[in-house]
Design goal:
The chain contains 22 helices and 14 strands. By secondary structure, the chain is an alpha/beta fold. The protein has 4 domains: 88 residues, no CATH class; 145 residues, HUPs (Rossmann fold, 3-Layer(aba) Sandwich); 89 residues, no CATH class; 181 residues, Isoleucyl-tRNA Synthetase, Domain 1. The structure holds arginine. Arginine (ARG) binds next to helix 11 and strand 11. One of its GO terms (cellular component) is cytoplasm.
């Protein structure tokens, strides 16, 4: 794919992509040299003669071993060189994107010098035609992404924050690739805990079970309510019985219980929404309760298929290769988290018509999803690999978020649980200071906008830049740093480009006509390096999509900003003979930066 995009008009692509594997373009020594690497054939290894009559084969001396190795290496080089030469010979006489002729470079390498005029045209086309078509094409049509998914009456914790940030980026990226994306918030809004909560409200509130104030409580108050009811539940067996009875009434559709449950959900929903609004994340709530009506029939159906087994009265599904089964119904008749997920996977495939399902949760749930996916396969919800309707299903697991000291993360208010809203507040405040230091005259409204963009962006970026499976430290000092791999640094780089364009004060730049009339001439090595990195944008997306790892995209963006800064230190723009060309170049950089920002959920700033 990368090769195809880099060489769109190549008449005989097969010739270049002849080696197997997935060739990648890579920088190579000189700025505008590229190598295409792939796996070239290896000469057959000479088999040592079998030892005769059990006799020990004579050992080679060190020098002889060395000689043998060198000979092997030479044979390999020769063969690879031959293939490389064949590839070169198969190339057409002239290739617009390559300056001069490609040449073998020893072993499995072919050197090609990218034609800078061609590269300038590609960069310019980003301005004239936009970069929508740079998105990788994927075989899927409709992705269903399950992310964020906090639990009602509990604080949304940093794990949910990480899921929200990662899921949002994946959703944005797949959308950019042309897929329809359904963003599902699988809120934990159903289960036995609600009997306990409702019963506690009924017994402790002045308004009893009908207390409408619940609706207006914040997450801290709800969490406290949860804690108290749980304490009571554990300490008082009679309360426990009454709570169980309340679950029964709730599941039986008792109006008062349902209303109390809805009030708790509503209060939580408002608190969650406040976080989503600040982060600019959109989600469709489809909590566990949504699937409740399907559970009983689902279990019956599985039983009918003969894949349910009994385990001490509980109903379970065994999945090959797994140590434990998936419990779908407890001995007391209750359904579980996994039953709901089984109903949900079926709904997402059959009703929602997703052909790519993604679940973004902490790595701790990997085993759970193995069981759910395995059971769904066994039940026939997931069509087999050789069926054209076979979906792609991914559990996108992630590591822990730790405090700066490497221990549990805490906020200023202390307490058991870190409040997400406080994390957001602090990041924003810190960025406010940074911005004010540099622009004392900034107005209230702009300051608020810019510090939100920077502060929330800093949190998101600090998360996304880590490989998702690693644990990382949540460190305000590091993430709000002006220098280094931070959102703040990147947003400043973008604002610098905006300021160059503003200073140029040329209407042809803003109305796009310059991009159609002037051309980009890449002369200075820093310009060439910048342009070369710019056109590798699709490769970064491909890398990210391979393992659903947004850190591949942040890496690309960081290097882009870095190459821009090197360019800017070395090349003046305004008032130079190259002004037109350089204005176009930096505009293209800004276009790609903004696309990356968009995918990462960052809001670009134009003046800071
Ligand atoms: N509510 C769960 C939790 O907080 C996450 C749900 C993830 N999605 C799912 N379909 N199981 O851990």
């Amino acid at each position: 794919g990368a090769i195809e995009r880099a060489f769109p008009d190549l008449p005989n692509q097969q010739a270049v992509v002849a080696p197997t594997g997935n060739p990648k373009i890579a920088d190579y020594q000189c700025n505008n040299a590229m190598i295409i690497s792939g796996r070239l054939p290896q000469p057959p290894k000479e088999k040592p003669a079998p030892a005769e009559n059990g006799q020990e084969k004579p050992k080679l001396s060190k020098a002889e071993q060395k000689k043998l190795k060198a000979a092997e290496q030479e044979a390999r080089n020769k063969l690879q060189n031959k293939v490389a030469q064949q590839i070169i010979d198969a190339l057409p006489e002239s290739l617009p994107m390559i300056a001069g002729r490609p040449a073998t470079a020893g072993g499995a390498f072919i050197n090609m010098r990218v034609d800078t005029a061609w590269m300038g045209q590609v960069v310019q086309s980003m301005l004239v035609e936009g970069i929508d078509k740079w998105a990788p094409r994927l075989p899927h049509k409709r992705a269903v992404i399950d992310f964020s998914s906090p639990n009602v009456a509990k604080e949304m914790h940093v794990g949910h924050l990480r899921s929200t940030i990662l899921g949002d980026t994946l959703a944005r990226t797949l959308e950019y690739c042309g897929l329809e994306v359904v963003r599902l918030n699988h809120v934990g809004d159903w289960g036995t805990q609600f009997g306990m909560l409702i019963q506690y409200i009924a017994e402790s509130r002045p308004g009893g079970i009908n207390d409408t104030n619940i609706e207006h409580e914040d997450l801290g108050q709800l969490q406290a309510l949860y804690k108290k009811s749980k304490e009571r539940f554990d300490a008082d067996p009679e309360f426990k019985e009454r709570a169980k009875a309340a679950v029964g009434r709730l599941q039986g559709g008792d109006a008062e219980c349902l209303q109390a449950w809805q009030r708790i959900c509503k209060a939580s929903r408002q608190a969650f929404q406040a976080v989503y609004d600040r982060l600019g994340v959109k989600l469709e709530e489809r909590g566990e309760s949504f699937y409740n009506p399907f559970l009983a029939s689902l279990v019956e159906e599985l039983a009918g298929q003969g894949i349910i087994e009994d385990s001490n009265g509980a109903k379970v599904v065994w999945v090959e290769g797994q140590e434990n089964p998936l419990i779908v119904q407890k001995a007391d008749g209750a359904f579980l988290y996994g039953t709901t997920d089984l109903a949900a996977i079926r709904h997402r495939l059959q009703t929602e018509k997703g052909d790519w399902l993604i679940y973004v949760t902490d790595l701790g749930q990997a085993g759970h999803f193995d069981l759910v996916f395995g059971s769904a396969k066994k039940a026939g919800f997931i069509l087999p690999k050789d069926d054209p309707g076979h979906p792609r299903i991914d559990h996108v697991g992630f590591g822990l978020v730790l405090g700066a000291d490497g221990k549990r993360i805490r906020t200023r208010s202390g307490g058991d649980n870190v409040r997400l809203s406080e994390l957001l507040d602090e990041a924003k405040e810190r960025c406010q200071t940074t911005i004010k230091d540099r622009r004392e005259d900034i107005g209230e409204e702009e300051l608020d906008m810019a510090s939100s963009a920077m502060g929330y962006g800093a949190i998101k970026y600090a998360d996304l830049k880590n490989h998702r499976t690693t644990n990382y430290k949540f460190d305000f000092d590091a993430m709000c740093d002006l220098k280094g791999n931070t959102a703040v640094y990147l947003l400043y780089a973008h604002a610098r480009i905006a300021s160059i364009v503003r200073k140029a004060d040329r209407p042809e730049v803003s109305d796009g006509s310059l991009a159609k009339s002037a051309s980009i001439d890449l002369e200075h090595p820093a310009e060439v390096a910048l342009a070369l990195h710019l056109i590798r944008f699709p490769e970064a997306l491909e890398d990210m999509l391979e393992d659903l790892t947004p850190n591949r995209l942040t890496e690309y963006l960081y290097i882009l900003s870095d190459k821009f800064n090197t360019f800017y230190t070395n090349c003046h723009v305004i008032g130079e003979a190259q002004e037109d060309s350089r204005l176009l170049l930096v505009q293209s950089v800004a276009v790609v930066m903004r696309q990356c920002f968009h995918l990462l959920g960052l809001t670009p700033l134009y003046r800071i």
